[in-house]
Amino acid sequence: MKLASLRNGRDGRLVVVDADLRYYAPAGGIAATLQDALDDWGRAAPRLRDLAAALEAHQAKEALPFDATACAAPLPRAYHWVDGSAYVNHVELVRKARGAEMPASFWTDPLVYQGGSDDFLGPTEDAPFPSEDLGIDLEAEVAVVVGDVPMGSTPEAVRGRGDIRLVMLANDWSLRHLIPPELAKGFGFYQSKPATAFSPVAVTPDELGADWDGGRLHRPVAVHLNGQPFGAPEAGVDMTFDFAQLVAHCARTRNLRAGTIVGSGTISNYDRSRGSACIAERRMLEQLESGAPRTPFLKFGDQVRIEVLDRQGRTVFGAIEQRVIRPWR
């Protein structure tokens, strides 16, 4: 099934969306918000599935036209948002570009950081930044939403219990010129990681069929910049740590509560013909090839689109479509 949150207060209004993202049915009689549903998944999920089936069969009591521009992020705010760097190829490339050797542990011990989760952007909301001089960059990612995950869970337990409830897309905006001085302090990202945006809908893993293997999404993630193709790396290829491993890593010393979001990090392939999912990677490749980057970071007015199509060419999560703007206040 596919779930979305229409803009309504701080936490949105939960709706069930049909497979083609044409119609939705309000889910208020089951759960007011997606967080409510996740908190009581055992009760809510079967009823939401029944509503989804009725919607597909054109038997829902109320079916209304679905409009992604009316959506907030599936979870407009979350108790916990942790982003990984599961594509170690990407990390290796970043370090190589600046002449730094990569520790061997990066291949066996996932990199993660805890991001801001109190203020996510909806899929079509403008993305405001204080200045173009900060090195504005997109990052196309896959993200999952989990149920309650007990501390000390193994990847096998995460898979076996079905802890991954939902899958969605993310645009994890980065301000590249703020990252080096922040990391040099030894305390991690903060100002360099503004509000993240998510796709219009989040889908249950079973909805993905053979394109979901229990820990990876096996589809290209298409990125367009100002209407032009920028990259379409394969999300299931070169992902060193799958989502079950990332979730287990995050739960090593703490419980993860229902509604925790875990991101994959920037999708990246060794096959450079697939293009890139962020500008920084393209600039690194240009630097390695010709000695200097050529592709500029984003400017006010630039448009970003991130989307996944299924094998029949239908949008899976809906598209993240955002415009870079000056702050409105």
Q: What's the short version?
A:
It is built from 7 helices and 18 strands.
Molecular structure report:
By secondary structure, this protein is of the alpha+beta class. Helix content is 20%, strand content 22%. The protein has 7 helices and 18 strands. A 6-stranded mixed beta sheet has the order 6-5-16-9-10-12, covered by helices on one side. A 5-stranded antiparallel beta sheet has the order 4-3-2-1-13. Strands 7-18-17-14-15 form a 5-stranded mixed beta sheet, with no helix packed on it. Strand 1 and strand 2 (13-17) form a beta hairpin. Helix 3 (88-97) crosses helix 7 (279-290) and helix 4 crosses helix 6 (243-250). The protein is globular, with a radius of gyration of 19 Å.
Helix content: 10-25%
Order of helices and strands: EEEHHEEHEEEEHEEHEEEEHEHEE
Q: Strand fraction band?
A: 15-25%
Radius of gyration: 19 Å
The biggest sheet amounts to: 6 strands, mixed
Helix- and strand-based class?
alpha+beta
